Amino acid sequence: MTTFTRIAETEAPSISIDVERRLSKIGIYPHSSNTKFVDEKTLMCGISDPNIYGGFTESVRELLLGPRDCSYGCLKILIQKTRNIQVNVMLDIILEILVESFPLFSLFQFNSSCPSVTDANTMISYTKDGWFKSFSKVANGHQQKLKFYLRRRTLPLRGLSHVHPYPLSQSMFRDRDQTTDLSLRHMGRCIYGGIYDPDNSLSDKHGYRTDVLSALRELDIPVIRYPGGNFVATYHWQDGVGPKELRPARPELAWLGTETNEFGTDEFMHWLGVLSEGKERRVEPYFCLNFGTGTLDEALAWVEYCNGTRNTYYANLRRKNGHEEPYNIKYWALGNEMWGPWQVGQMTASKYAEQAAQWGKALKLLDPSLCLILCGETGVSSWDHHVLKECIKYTDMHSIHAYTAAPSHMANAIAPLSAERAIQTTAALIDIARIENNIPPSAPQVKICFDEWNVWDPIRAPGEEGAEELYTLSDALAVAVWLNVFVRQSRWMGMANIAQTVNVISPLMTTEKGIVKQSTWWPLLLFSKYMRGWTLGIHVKAAAWEGKTEPAWLEGILYEGACLLDASASVNEEGVVSLVIVNVSESEDAEVELKGVGKDVAVYTITGKDAKAVNTADKEGVSLEESKWDGQGKYKFPKLSITMLRWATGVKVVDVSKGDGLRLDTRKMAWNADGSKE
């Protein structure tokens, strides 16, 4: 088997590579927005039969280029080495097409696991301009030359290279990014004693904490997920509607408590309405269905109760309960973590896929406008592959979950990079499922719904005890890296919901007298206010950290270690660029020459005394400071800091052709390193 291993990359993301499996793909990322795949059967036939590879060249060219020439995307090809064709001939054909067709793509080193290869000496030669590299490998006495054009900036953060064609705000949330969605669940003090506390003097007439509402309005939240979480596996929605005095209290098996059902569907929707007051758009609800002890009939009834407009039983029940108009809830998850051994009603992937497909068909018959979200695992598992393959025809998004934490600061801060690989792998699995199911190109792309993410150490903050984490500056840096990941991978993302909203592993904590904004509040606020619009590609070259990681497999894919400067950038419709740099180093400030940033730069810095700094009701150890910079010379990013730089380019994005409204024509919008418009 022959494959490639990434040794350097441009602004494009990577896809995990497993050379031992048939589904291994080579992730080459050209500057083309239309994701195009070489048909595996056709490619294998062309390589294995030397009599047809002449005509095969043109079919490869057509498959590689695709019908559109946009701006960004990924190409995956599987190359099988056989004895009856010279591999270098076929590679030359493919590489010639790549070099001719795409201005930028990642550099890969040729490797082989073929047993007959006896010598693996690799030689690298550079031309004078440094843009061309030729890799030669001696194998079986003959040379195989692989030629690649590499355009990689060598200066750290030397300007913005291009505009990512996909906005941070997906089609359902124009002008809003998806990185600050929240999750609200029946767990600990999240609802009772959190958003809902009728006996507290700070609560309004409905029992809602007004200080919590005010804080959450600052985040301008697009979506909130409800009611769980593990809780939902034994939750029956009808227990939580109707007169409160008639609602039954039930044992709560996820966290071993008692659910009073005082706060249910109607209360949640009313609370969302209050939260949305004064906003241009309401905060969208996202409901999770009970796949543990629930039934399809129960799920259909809940959708009918929430969205029904006809003269039917559950629509009339909603009206009877005082809500004449439908709630029009679009987002519905087909269960939560049904793969987990802690889950009531745990299923195998096969059983879940069979049930999810049937539920999906029925729910779409009741309401075709629903956005159904498949229950994935971590994005890097056989569960994800199987359920996507079986259910991609019936769902609109694929959910994955991950929590990160580590005892040491550096491992803790860089742990969210594992989520980046999970997103990339999930995107590849979605593409594989589309290919295996012959999904036509015109069908909408299934997006990734990262609807549980955060820094959480269950040993430090057990779920059964309310999971009330005290977050440090190190955790804030980790959350900022999480958010950077979502910005960088926004092409694949449909939603990302931090868990939870208040008190439970949350940026907000309530006391009897007020709220505490934890260290993790500040990066969320910064991204929510300013990381709007479209993502920008950037190049970062800095010192790297190498050490043990959590999860352990992350160390294996960080080929050159974890960069101490983690970055993302966006541009809004007014042409204002927001650049975020997270300096995770405990000991070193980073001086970076930034070109093309303008002369009036707003600076926002989040930092503290040390990695263990925390915010409590008595002191604020982690805070946000605002300042100005003239854009001249080098900028010093402090150790243990999150820095956002914002400046106006003078070019409004609204004046740029947007194609289908989601993707920008990047040829009409680009800045040189000196800030001038191309």
Automatic annotation (TrEMBL):
<comment type="function">
    <text>Alpha-L-arabinofuranosidase involved in the degradation of arabinoxylan, a major component of plant hemicellulose. Acts only on small linear 1,5-alpha-linked L-arabinofuranosyl oligosaccharides.</text>
</comment>
<dbReference type="GO" id="GO:0046556">
    <property type="term" value="F:alpha-L-arabinofuranosidase activity"/>
</dbReference>
<comment type="pathway">
    <text>Glycan metabolism; L-arabinan degradation.</text>
</comment>
<keyword id="KW-0378">Hydrolase</keyword>
<dbReference type="GO" id="GO:0046373">
    <property type="term" value="P:L-arabinose metabolic process"/>
</dbReference>
<dbReference type="InterPro" id="IPR013780">
    <property type="entry name" value="Glyco_hydro_b"/>
</dbReference>
<comment type="similarity">
    <text>Belongs to the glycosyl hydrolase 51 family.</text>
</comment>
<dbReference type="InterPro" id="IPR017853">
    <property type="entry name" value="GH"/>
</dbReference>
<keyword id="KW-0119">Carbohydrate metabolism</keyword>
<keyword id="KW-0326">Glycosidase</keyword>
<dbReference type="GO" id="GO:0031222">
    <property type="term" value="P:arabinan catabolic process"/>
</dbReference>
<dbReference type="InterPro" id="IPR055235">
    <property type="entry name" value="ASD1_cat"/>
</dbReference>
<feature type="domain" description="Alpha-L-arabinofuranosidase C-terminal">
    <location>
        <begin position="451"/>
        <end position="641"/>
    </location>
</feature>
<dbReference type="Pfam" id="PF06964">
    <property type="entry name" value="Alpha-L-AF_C"/>
</dbReference>
<dbReference type="Pfam" id="PF22848">
    <property type="entry name" value="ASD1_dom"/>
</dbReference>
<protein>
    <recommendedName>
        <fullName>non-reducing end alpha-L-arabinofuranosidase</fullName>
        <ecNumber>3.2.1.55</ecNumber>
    </recommendedName>
</protein>
<dbReference type="InterPro" id="IPR010720">
    <property type="entry name" value="Alpha-L-AF_C"/>
</dbReference>
